[in-house]
Amino acid sequence: MARRVPRSGWSCTARLSADASLAYAVTRGDLAVVSVLASLAPAITALLARALTTERPGAPQTAGAALAVLGTLLVSAAQAAA
C-alpha cells in the first residue's frame, strides 16, 4: 500500500520543481522572456490558492494579479512588434 505524502511534502515537491524549472529556463532560454514569465509567480500562486483551497483573494489581490497579467501581455506584444 502506498504511503500518503503529507501536504507539506507536496508543497516542497512543487517548490523544488518550480525552482528547477526556473533554473533550467534561465540557463537555456531567453532571459528577457523568462524574467517576464517568472514575474507572474505571485498571480499563479493566488490562482492556485483559489482553485485548491477555500482561500479567496480580495479586491487588491485580484487587481494586482490582473495588472501583472496585463503587463506581461503588453511586454509580449512589444517584443513581438520589435
Concise account of the structure shown:
This protein has 82 residues and is mainly α. Helix content is 79%, strand content 0%.
Task: Write the SSE topology.
Layout: H1 7-28, H2 31-38, H3 41-52, H4 59-81
Helix pairs in contact: 1-2, 3-4
Description of the structure:
The protein has four helices and no strands. 79% of the residues lie in helices and 0% in strands. The model has no long low-confidence stretch (mean pLDDT 80). With 82 residues, the chain is mainly α. It starts with 6 loop residues before the first helix and ends with a helix. Helix 1 (7-28) packs antiparallel against helix 2 (31-38) and helix 3 crosses helix 4. It has a domain at 30-82.
Observed structural traits:
mainly alpha; 79% helix
Largest sheet: none
| Gyration radius from CA atoms, angstroms | 16 Å
**Could you say which structural class the secondary elements and strand pairing correspond to?**
mainly alpha
End-to-end gap: 56 Å
Low-confidence stretches: none
Q: Can you count the helices?
A: 4
Tell me the overall shape.
Answer: flat
